[in-house]
Specification:
CATH class of one domain in chain B: Alpha Beta
Order of helices and strands of chain A: HEEEEEHHE
Distance between the termini of chain B: 72 Å
Number of helices of chain B: 20
Order of helices and strands of chain B: HHHHHHHHHHEHHEEEHHHHHHHH
Largest sheet of chain B: 4 strands, mixed
Largest sheet of chain A: 6 strands, mixed
Shape of chain B: elongated
CATH topology of one domain in chain B: Collagenase (Catalytic Domain)
Strand order of the largest sheet of chain B: 1-2-4-3
Radius of gyration of chain B: 25 Å
Oligomer: heterodimer
Largest interface: A-B, 30 and 36 residues
Structural class of chain B: mainly alpha
Strand content of chain B: under 5%
Radius of gyration of chain A: 19 Å
């Protein structure tokens, strides 16, 4: 029984892996990719590759409105890094570009 | 014959139960709901001993033992005699819940639905927590001097008039002398909350955190208010969380009415720069988790006016909200352990499993192994952790109404926790219906209220001061 289960797992795993690698033609990607950005081990930003709010550590304005970004959503976690992160974002064309700029500026970027 | 058949079945049912093989004798309503033994644990017990009655007797014994241990603060404080506590524990989970409902001290870290307890606690512990706040503000020396060892919180309750008037504290029985049960009194109490030493240490730590409220150029009223809010938030909190806040050197800065955030020393380096969403830092009136130079800790800041009045009426935040929200960030980031930690009696799952297996295979340490196994499978939870807050956040996002704490709470796990904290302390609900008050939180999201309870203990309302 154990042998059968092991064989099933071994034969099933590559198929599962393949299905996670790239969506087939016509398939829609349900979940956007998210990334964690750290500096010296400290989490400074989380980024999701889908339009949405960008969030500061600063108290949000009393009107409750959040700023939406056209190609990503992100939350900052370190006040002292926010200005630099914002400047990098302003120069970026898309999420991939932003992540590349972050890496170049010395931040570590890892998928969540 | 027809009417006799059900009666015959009833008469025969104990016999058939006794005759059933041990694993089949498991009944959810009896074994799991009443004695908190899962089917898996039951199977393990059956593998060791096929007699279901004997196993059930052992399960009951272990449950009662654990229940009494958990009831120790109440027994020590004189809310129950040991005999009465024993009677209640022998009723299983319902009896144990009755003990928790009557406890004035925070409930220890035990799983299950605490919404009923919280409903009572939110009404009743208001007085208790206010008394703690008063003691803290009035200076701790008197508390240390007068407090009786073995009576955690007793003096505080007495100050609140609870000790002498049971009608003010619901169903708590009158104080009676406590006959000691041999063997029980020498044991340590539940983790975290029962020991008088822990109670005193937590109070001292709160004093340290209050002393780290930096209020230069701020009115005495606002400075007092900030320290009062800190005392109130932490008065019944998990002592480990309070200790972590001290160790991580968390500071709370108050921005004077006539100053900017960037006039304060730790925030000067933000002068002229912008937030991630494009605002100028100088004009921001609240921020959490600014790192200070290496080894010096972390700082949050809130405005003086946010502690004094409902600023910007019609569109602003309720009084105390900003402080509670930002301090909530500090509690989550610096106070909570990163990962779940084990309670002393519950080692890791792998270890428990290993002990169980070696236990029923005849290890000399069998009794102890089985004991820890039962406790671990019996629903005892570890103290709250950052990881758990993350799990709750992720699970909330999958619900139709998401967290129900408002859009802001849904943007990331840190705002989720801070908004949840504000709801728990009754300062989160504003005129736009954004968030919850404590009552609606308990009613609509008892899971989140239970989590807050394990972080902060019973919640005092802060809306009225």
């Amino acid at each position: 029984m154990r042998l059968i289960l092991t064989l099933l797992l071994l034969t099933g795993m590559p198929a599962c892996r393949r299905s996670q690698e790239a969506p087939k033609k016509g398939e829609t990607v349900v979940e956007a990719r998210s990334y964690e950005v750290t500096k010296k081990g400290r989490l400074v930003l989380t980024v999701t590759d889908a339009p949405g709010p960008i969030v500061s550590t600063a108290l949000r304005p009393p009107d409750g409105k959040m700023v939406n970004h056209p190609f990503l959503s992100a939350s900052a976690y370190a006040p002292e890094e926010e200005d630099a992160l914002r400047q990098l974002l302003e120069k970026s064309q898309n999420t991939r570009d932003f992540l590349a700029r972050l890496r170049k500026a010395g931040y570590e970027v890892a998928p969540r | 014959m027809g009417p006799l058949l059900p009666a015959l079945l009833v008469v025969l049912s104990p016999l058939s139960w006794a005759a059933a093989p041990c694993p089949d004798a498991f009944r959810e309503e009896e074994h799991q709901a009443k004695w908190e033994v899962t089917r898996a644990t039951w199977a393990v017990l059956c593998a060791r001993d096929p007699d279901p009655e004997k196993n059930l007797a052992e399960v009951k014994e272990k449950f009662i033992e654990a229940c009494l241990e958990r009831a120790l603060p109440s027994i020590q404080a004189g809310y129950y005699t040991t005999e009465r506590a024993h009677e209640l524990c022998a009723e299983g989970v319902p009896g144990r819940e009755r003990i928790y409902l009557a406890q004035e001290v925070p409930r220890p870290f035990v799983g299950g639905n605490a919404s009923a307890h919280l409903t009572v606690a939110s009404d009743r512990t208001e007085v208790y927590s206010r008394a703690i706040g008063d003691v803290l503000r009035g200076g701790l020396a008197s508390m240390y001097g007068e407090r009786r060892i073995g009576d955690p919180g007793g003096e505080v309750l007495a100050k609140a008039g609870l000790a002498s008037d049971p009608s003010k504290s619901g169903a708590r029985p009158a104080l009676t002398p406590v006959p000691r049960r041999p063997g029980l009194d020498s044991r340590p109490g539940p983790p975290g909350l029962s020991s008088p030493d822990v109670f005193v240490r937590r109070a001292r730590n709160i004093e340290v955190i209050q002393s780290r409220v930096v209020a230069d150029g701020v009115s005495d009223q606002a400075a007092d208010q900030a320290r009062w809010v800190v005392g109130r938030m932490l008065a019944a909190a998990d002592p480990a969380v309070v200790q972590n806040l001290v160790d991580r050197k968390v500071y709370s800065y108050i921005i004077p009415k006539d100053k900017q955030l960037t006039d304060l020393e730790p925030f000067k380096r933000l002068k002229g720069t912008q937030t991630f969403d494009g605002r100028v830092w100088d004009f921001v009136r609240g921020v959490g988790n600014m790192s200070l130079p290496e080894g010096e800790g972390y700082a949050m800041a809130v405005s003086e006016e946010s502690l004094l009045e409902d600023h910007e009426p019609g569109g602003g935040y309720p009084k105390n909200y900003v402080f509670v929200h930002e301090f909530g960030h500090m509690v989550q980031i610096h106070g909570l352990p990163t990962r779940p930690t084990s309670v002393p009696a519950a080692p890791s799952f792998r270890e428990r499993l290993g002990r169980l297996l070696t236990g029923f295979l005849g290890n000399p340490d069998q009794e102890r192994s089985r004991d820890t196994g039962l406790l671990a499978f019996g629903g005892i939870q570890a103290p709250a952790s950052f990881f758990e807050s993350f799990q709750l956040y992720r699970a909330s996002l999958k619900r139709p109404g998401k967290s129900t704490l408002g859009d802001y709470a849904d943007v990331n796990v840190q705002e989720f926790f801070a908004q949840l904290t504000a709801a728990y302390f009754n300062v989160g609900l504003n005129e736009r219906g954004n968030g919850h008050d404590l009552r609606s939180l308990i009613e609509q999201r008892p899971d989140l209220a239970e989590f807050m309870y394990r972080v902060y203990g019973p919640a005092p309302s802060m809306g009225r001061r």
